[in-house]
Amino acid sequence: MAMANAKDPDEPLSSQETQDSHESRKPTRSAKRAESTRAKRPTAMEILRQARGQLAELTGMEAESVTSFEQTDEGWALEVEVLELERVPDTMSLMASYQVELDSDGQLTGYRRVRRYERGRSDARRSGGR
């Protein structure tokens, strides 16, 4: 009986404290949710790193550079240069340019090779020449 009496005074206080703490946490939870949503959104640099890593994993070729990068309605579009075939001298190595598409979370949704060229040759199509 003494235990029951000892609990009774604490019970309303605990219930009140619990109710108060729930009310005070509500704004904090929604603020945390909004913050976590923002935190989950990858930065441009994270997108670039993810694109390079995912393309390397799929093709077995390391990206040397990203030559274009833009946000689209569906996510991101990049053009990535890779070394396809190493030759000596290095200026004769075969390079390739891949168009890479990612969703808004940075997950690769598609890629395709758009051109292939020797490292030491300029691309007339890109440089405005013939």
Automatic annotation (TrEMBL):
Basic and acidic residues bias (residue ranges): 19-38
Source organism of this protein record: Streptomyces thermospinosisporus
Lineage of producing organism: Bacteria, Bacillati, Actinomycetota, Actinomycetes, Kitasatosporales
Disordered, as annotated region: 1-44
UniProt protein name: Gas vesicle protein
Pfam families, per the entry: GvpO (PF05800)
